[in-house]
Amino acid sequence: MPNTALAFAEKNREKALEELKAFLRIPSVSTLPDHAGDVRAAAGFLADELKRIGLENVRLIETAGHPLVYGDWLHAEGKPTVLLYGHYDVQPPDPLDEWLSPPFEPVERNNNLYARGAVDDKGQLWMQVKALEALFQGSGGRLPVNVRMISEGEEEVGGEGISEYVQKHPEALKADVALVCDTEMFAPELPTLCVGLRGMIYTELEVRGAKSDLHSGMYGGAAPNPFMALAEILTGLKDADGHILIPGFYDDLQTPAAEELAAWKSLPFDEEHYRLTEVGSPELVGEKGYSVLERIWARPTLEVHGMPGGFIGAGAKTVIPAKALAKVSMRLVPNMTSAKAYELYAAYVQKLAPKGVTVETRLIHSGEPVVVSTDNPFIHKAVTAMHEIWKKDTVFVRGGGSIPIVGEFERYLKLPVILMGFGLPDDGLHAPNEKFHIPNFYRGTDSIILFLENCGA
Amino acid sequence: MPNTALAFAEKNREKALEELKAFLRIPSVSTLPDHAGDVRAAAGFLADELKRIGLENVRLIETAGHPLVYGDWLHAEGKPTVLLYGHYDVQPPDPLDEWLSPPFEPVERNNNLYARGAVDDKGQLWMQVKALEALFQGSGGRLPVNVRMISEGEEEVGGEGISEYVQKHPEALKADVALVCDTEMFAPELPTLCVGLRGMIYTELEVRGAKSDLHSGMYGGAAPNPFMALAEILTGLKDADGHILIPGFYDDLQTPAAEELAAWKSLPFDEEHYRLTEVGSPELVGEKGYSVLERIWARPTLEVHGMPGGFIGAGAKTVIPAKALAKVSMRLVPNMTSAKAYELYAAYVQKLAPKGVTVETRLIHSGEPVVVSTDNPFIHKAVTAMHEIWKKDTVFVRGGGSIPIVGEFERYLKLPVILMGFGLPDDGLHAPNEKFHIPNFYRGTDSIILFLENCGA
Predict the structure, then answer these.
(1) Which of A332, B134, B148, B339 could crosslink B8 through cysteines, CB 3.0-4.6 Å?
(2) Which residues of A touch B227 (CB under 8 A)?
(3) Which residue ranges in chain B fall short of pLDDT 50?
């Protein structure tokens, strides 16, 4: 018997892609206050579509920040309930001048769709929506499982709203398994489940010296320079090999099991190819004695994202700025906690502060590291579904990034979380020219259709 | 016999102040390309006034950048020729939100005139113009000396145009002495001549890591971070005590003579008052074993002015930037040269570069350090003029800043340079809320009138 849902999805592919483009045209940049209206517009766009395809109880759930979008269909008696999660907010598009086409005008090139949010995460969220639509259409308005779908607009800024909602209303999201589509495949054509994510703390480090900006000729040699102070603090936080120097920072770290490390070694990974095609730097960096995959999946890291303040225009201004800022984040791995990591960091920064300046740290957002258990039947259903579409065995990997909600689902809803994603390593998440490989958008939709059918079988 | 020039100046004080306000309303920020038209407008404003008061041969002299403004009056036969210098360009006004009144809307408060350029240098340039006007008006259209007046619009960006002009056309600026009004008094009511200035090199230090911006979760632990690399380089350039670590940097440095150092010790300088009222930081910083005045006048320094690149918006962006920049300048003292200092710096930066990144240095502009000889008669004429107005003996100081043209006047025109300035230590040069103490504007004008009369006596 032909699969009617897959047939519907195949017939409506181009339409689904055009809809996704319309979704991508809404610049829902959650971190920029000027875009708050766009974020809400994207939520409304999504909610309208959920109603149209047949979900019930569709509504925006207000938070202190951007709204959640909820919908459900709970008429598959005796069948499990699947909680679908994605996010409709996107990263800022800067630096704008490095985009080959405008970030919010989606363009197809070489079988890829280019736009901010194409893969992270509007495209992957749209696969979920289109999979549900195909299932409704293929079976006379019914789904093979019960479904709750929740999407957030704050994933790129820490996900506080959904975190609070999950903790306060766990019953409203009661389910048997969560399907999160916000990760990537380890390599093209290689179906992948992500079973671990790093946590993070994102901070601001502010250094103040003189009471106001001063002339560097008149005061250079007497007034403290906040940027030099920041440079001293930053080099005190991490050594040249990437080892973090904050006392106690590694104390709770749990090394991956020997068999997981062994599995990583058998993954198709060519360090030189990775350096050339993905990173593009003269050398790779990081802690000695660890492979690249260990360093990005199972070791904490510390990065500086930008250093606002002072003179950043063209040309010259001979100023000793009164203050300088560094945006500093740390990635955390099991079993570190964001609370302890921030506490150790904030205390050590004060110790590192050179004379003449005052230093203040602020926690912007945080998320806990996660390891997903693989010994549950839903992992098997996902593997089976992906094998049918991709004709290959699934590999189990971790992700270096953070999806804070995954830890919350585990902690507060007691759910196994399936991290099934269809991005590719060169998709340029958070970077200029972000893309989604169009065949992956189609086959990802098909994989979700089969996964939900497997769950209901 | 009453001094008719001084009388004219006194009678026309308020008018002179209102004219200065109009001059200050033109936002002639030389470093910002968007303001090129304003810089030219300020040049035109100045030229019109020079013609009006009676200077001859008034014209704009084109350069590769902003124009010079020239005018002369050469009919005082047998009298010396005085070359008057000032600049009509100003520093950028940022950070704008720290100004109590808009930077280009001059406002009087507490007997001060607040505006960008009030004291540096439009106000001091306008004193020269008003002194010449008073001398013309007080003596039937004649001056007591021959005068050439040249003003530039690139002092805040290195003064390349005037430097080239001085080297190519020394005969066009032939004179016996130069009067530069672009410095400050050591303390209120204390007439001051500046007899030394630091030179400088202003550079950009660019670090490139990955080929494009990367997601800090996915690549943190493998990709180089250009801001961390910059932090390492910067801390390698200068130690925590402000000692510059570039090999050979101090080799040519000439320590001030013992009597000059002794004179500085007798200046009315209270380090704690200076820290509280001028700098406003928890402590002063700088090289051990040197007084504050030695550190800012007679020791080289290295400062960071800003670090463009990366994410500097509100909130969070988890990016490892592909590149980062630092604006780094060094002040130089006799007998260092800008060429050698830059060469040593650029070479050492390459040595400090950590693995995984490439580093490029660029020289934005430079100026040579200067010591002005005090054994010439014009210094005495300046001291006498100021004594008559201020009723106090002049103190001799150095300046920590750089006025590149002073070195060029000495080198190419073989002129003694009188640095007679009327700013105050708390005037906020290059900072928000720059001001000029209005009585100093008036008494400065009077001092210049008497100096020129003394030169012609």
Answers:
(1) B134
(2) 234, 304-307, 326
(3) none
Are residues A72 and A55 both part of a single domain? yes
Active site residue A155: yes
Interval A378-405 mean pLDDT: 93
A321 lies in the same domain as A186? no
User: CA-to-CA distance for B238 and B251, rounded, in angstroms?
Assistant: 16
Residue B281, domain member (yes or no): no
- Same-domain status, A241 and A316: yes
**Residue length of chain B:** 457
At A108-157, the pLDDT tens digits run: 999 999 999 999 999 999 999 999 999 999 999 999 999 999 999 999 88
**CB–CB contacts below 8 A, A to B:** 358
Nearest CA in chain A to B229: A240
Enumerate the residues of chain B whose CB falls inside 8 A of the CB of residue A295.
Answer: 221-222
Q: Which of A336, A367, A398 is the last residue of a domain?
A: A367
Q: Could you tell me how many helices (H) and strands (E) chain B has, helices first?
A: 14, 18
Please tell me whether the peptide bond between B146 and the residue prior to it is cis, using omega within 30 degrees of 0.
no
- Mean pLDDT along residues A25-32: 96
Residue holding tokens 């790779």? A284
Domain shared by B445 and B332, yes or no = no
Ordered DSSP codes for B304-370 = EEEEEEE--SSS---EE-SEEEEEEEEEE-TT--HHHHHHHHHHHHHHHPPTT-EEEEEEEEEE--E
A285 domain residue, yes or no: no
Among B31, B286, B401, beta carbon nearest to A316: B31
Q: Residue A403: what pLDDT?
A: 83
Tokens for B211, please give them. 């080929």
Q: How far apart are CA A88 and CA A177, in angstroms?
A: 21
* Domain shared by A80 and A177, yes or no: yes
Interface of B with A in 52-81 (CB under 8 A): none
CATH number where A312 lies: 3.30.70.360
Number of domains in chain A: 2
Interatomic CA distance for residues A170 and B37, integer angstroms:
63
Give the active site residue among A121, A155, A206, A408: A155
Would you state the pLDDT for residue B372? Answer: 81
Distance CA A452, CA A80 (A): 10
- Is residue A373 scored above 80 in pLDDT? no
Cis bond upstream, residue B121 (ω within 30): yes
Using the 3D structure, point to which of B323, B340, B367 is the last residue of a domain: B367
Same domain, A190 and A206: no
| Within-domain flag for B336 | yes
Residues B169 and B206 occupy one common structural domain: no
Residue B89 among the catalytic residues: yes
A124-152: burial string, b at 16+ Cβ within 10 Å, e else: bbbbbbbbbbbbbbbeeeebbbbbbbbbb
Alpha-carbon distance of B294 to B236, in angstroms, equals 24
Residues B123 and B24 in one domain: yes
The CATH number covering residue B153 comes to 3.40.630.10
Quick one: CA torsion of B3, B5, B9, B11, rounded to 10 degrees?
60
Is residue A293 assigned to a domain?
no
Question: How many angstroms separate the CA of residue A35 from the nearest CA in chain B?
Answer: 12
Q: Mark yes or no for CB contact A282/B235 under 8 Å.
A: no
Q: Which residues in chain A (222-281) have CB-CB distances under 8 A to chain B? A: 222-225, 227-228, 230-232, 234-235, 238, 240, 242, 274, 278-281
How far is it between the farthest Cα atoms of chain B?
A: 84
Cβ contact, residue pair A92, B313, below 8 Å: yes
